[in-house]
Structures are given as structure tokens and as C-alpha cells.
Write a structure and sequence with these properties.
alpha/beta, Rossmann fold, six-stranded parallel beta sheet, about 40% helix, about 20% strand
């Protein structure tokens, strides 16, 4: 039986994997939160992986408070850089394949074409910088790994844009939503399915990949789609980023090219609005 360690079990992707795991009788999933395994402590990580014979480690643990990271850089580094490094070291010692989740925030958003895995990285924020450094730590240690950069993750679980819009629509009659940041919303369940597919196939197509749902949208487009699908009547105004300043700068364009993913892994990628309908129906 294939045995999988999943860190960050309480996050959006971790919870999505928990749901999918219920239908995988031939895979044993071990889900851990930071309480069960603190990935910022090297000895704990090494000891935990040495005790079990894991085939894969899926690292869903991350410091994702983008704005808070600007004033909390040390803790962001501990989780996003050192945590990734310690897991990679433990995976190397135990012959465990690592699947790691990264972000579109490694780019500065100044491109006018979708970003490929070969594009220069130039993060604008502490969060983006620590996630990039986590990637580099992994690639300096391992040769057998999967790193998936994803964007605008949402799901039925945790805090995310979709759930925030649904909540605000019950509290307000009018909303302003940023319209000059462009990307691709990604349903966590779709990414979870990719991870399970790779595990079941025991894929050896290792490397760095971009994965998001198909299609392009602004945050304004995303919000309008949420309200359209739920038949919510609310005045939604398009506003520029400058009207909603935040501690961390966001890339204004973070659409990612998924050609490498499609060529090497051959997994169908759903259109973002179709996945949004599924997520809303599940709520």
C-alpha cells in the first residue's frame, strides 16, 4: 500500500485532499497539522519521516498571510523556507518523493504574456520571496520532486476570496472589487486531484510546474461570477488597486502558462468558472 504524508492538513488543499482520500482504499494518507508536526523544527521532521516508510510527502503547509508577512518576515521564513528545506532533507534521507506547493507571487506581474516555468522570478512581497526561497531550497537538495506553482486558490474550506464574497453579499448592498489584477482562480479540489493522480500513477515526470484552472479573470470578474452563479443581487463596482492599498504588493498580472504541465502530465485542466460552480454547489 502506498503511504502518503500530508502536511498542512487543516488548510484548503489539505482539507480537499482529506475528502479525496476517503475514496482511495489503496493509499494510506497520514494528515498532520502543525500541532502534530512542526516543519520548522529540523529534528522533529527528520524523526517523523524516519519512523514511517512514506512513499510521498505532500507539503501543503505554508505561511500564507501575505500582508502580515511584511512585518513578520522571520516566521514566514521559518515555515516557507526552512520548513521546505527540512522536509526536502528528510525526503532525501528516506527516499521519499516530495510534492510541494508554491505560488504565482514569485513573479512581479510585469509580463504581458503568461508566465512559463523558465520566466525570471522577481517577487514583490516577503511572502513571494519566502516561497521562492523555499523552492530553491528544495531544488538544491532533491532531484526527485514536484513543485506546483498555483494561483488564487479557493475552496469550501478555510478563508478565501469566494467565501469572503459570499459572506459580504449577505452584509452589504454594494461592493468595490479590484479590476486591474489579472490571474486564474484555482479550485483546491482540482489541484488535489492532480496530486492524487501523480501519486497513483507513481509518476517520474519530476520538476517545476505551473497549475491553475483554465481561463483568465480579474478579482472583479471572479466576484461577478460568484454573484451570478448564486443569483445574488449586489452592486459590484470595479476599482483600481490604488483604491485599496495593502502592506504587500501584488503582481498585477499572474497568469501562468501550463503547457509543460499538459505535455508532461497529460491531466485535463477544468475551466475556472465550471469549477467555481462545483465549489458553490458543494457549499
Amino acid at each position: 500500500m502506498t503511504t502518503i504524508l500530508v502536511t498542512g492538513a487543516n488548510g484548503q488543499l489539505g482539507q480537499s485532499l482529506q475528502v479525496l482520500s476517503l475514496n482511495e482504499a489503496l493509499i494510506k494518507f497520514i494528515f498532520v497539522s502543525s500541532k502534530e508536526l512542526d516543519i520548522t523544527k529540523r529534528e522533529s521532521v527528520i524523526s517523523f519521516l524516519n519512523k514511517k516508510n512514506f512513499d510521498f510527502c505532500v507539503n501543503c503547509a505554508a505561511y500564507t498571510a501575505v500582508d502580515k508577512a511584511e512585518s513578520d518576515e522571520d516566521n514566514a521564513k521559518k515555515v516557507n523556507v526552512l520548513g521546505a528545506q527540512y522536509l526536502a532533507e528528510a525526503c532525501l534521507n528516506t527516499n521519499t518523493k516530495l510534492i510541494h506547493i508554491s505560488t504565482d507571487f514569485v513573479f512581479n506581474g510585469m509580463s504581458n504574456i503568461p508566465y512559463t516555468e523558465r520566466h525570471e522570478t522577481r517577487p514583490l512581497s516577503v511572502y513571494g520571496k519566502t516561497k521562492l526561497d523555499g523552492e530553491l531550497a528544495i531544488t538544491s537538495i532533491l532531484t526527485e520532486y514536484f513543485i506546483f506553482r498555483t494561483s488564487w486558490l479557493y475552496s469550501e474550506y478555510g478563508s478565501n476570496f469566494m467565501k469572503t464574497m459570499l459572506r459580504l453579499s449577505t452584509e452589504r448592498n454594494e461592493l468595490g472589487v479590484i479590476s486591474d489584477q489579472i490571474g486564474s482562480p484555482t479550485y483546491a479540489k482540482d489541484l488535489a486531484k492532480v496530486i492524487v493522480h501523480i501519486i497513483k500513477a507513481n509518476s517520474n515526470q519530476f520538476g517545476l510546474y505551473h497549475y491553475s484552472n483554465e481561463g483568465v479573470a480579474s478579482w472583479y470578474d471572479f466576484a461577478k461570477a460568484i454573484f451570478d452563479i448564486t443569483n445574488t443581487e449586489i452592486v459590484t463596482n470595479a476599482i483600481p488597486t490604488s483604491a485599496y492599498p495593502t502592506p504587500a504588493k501584488r503582481p498585477c498580472f499572474s497568469v501562468m502558462d501550463k503547457a509543460k504541465f499538459k505535455k508532461n502530465l497529460g491531466i485535463e485542466i477544468p475551466y475556472w468558472r465550471d469549477s467555481l460552480k462545483e465549489a458553490i454547489s458543494n457549499i
